[in-house]
Amino acid sequence: MTRRLYYDDPYRRSFAASVVEFDPASGSVYLDATAFYPTSGGQLHDTGTIGSARVLDVIDEETRIRHVVDRPVSPGPAQCAIDWERRFDHMQQHTGQHLLSAVFHELYGRRTLSVHFGAETSTLDLDAASLEPAQLRAAEDRANAIVFENRPVTVSYHDAASLPALRKQTEREGTIRVVTIEGADVSACGGTHVRSTAEIGPVRIGRLDRVRGNVRVEFTCGQRSLSFWREALAAAAGAAAAASEKFAESEKARRKLAAELAGFRGRELYSRTSPDVRGLRIAVRQVASSPDDELRAEASAFTALPDAVYCVCRETPASLLLAVSAGSAVDAAAVLKPLLEAAGGRGGGNSRMAQGSLPEETALATFQKLLRLLGAA
Question: What angle, rounded to 10 degrees, do the helices at 223-242 and 84-108 form?
Answer without folding.
Answer: 90
